[in-house]
Design a protein that fits this description.
Elements: H1 2-10, H2 15-43, E1 67-68, H3 69-80, E2 83-87, E3 91-92, H4 96-116, E4 122-129, E5 134-140, H5 167-177, E6 181-187, E7 190-197, E8 200-201
Parallel strand pairs: 2-4
Antiparallel strand pairs: 1-3, 3-8, 4-5, 5-7, 6-7
Length: 202
Amino acid sequence: WVQLVAEDFAGAEDDQTLMARARRLRSNAPMAANRAERMAQALLNPTWQASLSAPLAPLDAPEPDMLDLDEHIRQAGLLHQVAIELEGGAWLHWDGAALATVLDNVLGNVSNLSRERQLTAHCRVVVLDEGSHVGVHFETPHLPLEIPLDKLFEPWASSGAVNRGLGMYQARKQAQLAGGELSAERLGEGLRVTLRLPCKES
């Protein structure tokens, strides 16, 4: 996200564009802080407590521990400047930190790869009821992935000019630890990444 902001500001051609991007940064900053805290809690120190960052779930959620999947996906899209075409939706009980890790890595990769190829960052997200699971399919059929599919979830896997490091590996690990699964398959020239979540509440 820091790299994205730096490139955004450096690419501003005039003061009006710079101010527009600064206003967008101001509106996105609470979401970025919340995501950073969730990731730190999950990856660095399980006992660490979040501060007063804006909550990801809306205040009118049916239960405090339920996640509005649609809202999390839309906020992650805003954070990474990815246009989201969303179909379906669900409320569910699941690990919020694991969901944040998956969304940050999947949509962060879409954003980075699109910028490298000077394309508009776009992702179709389909949420489906699959019985005992909710399936979340992230589809980017026109965004080529320059890495073998079987290497995508390996540590230090990289595609394009930006080193993704442990991103997708860690995202799958977090999903599995929370009882979910993260997988990928070819779709057109690009990819479909699927997150399957148990303990569904629609």
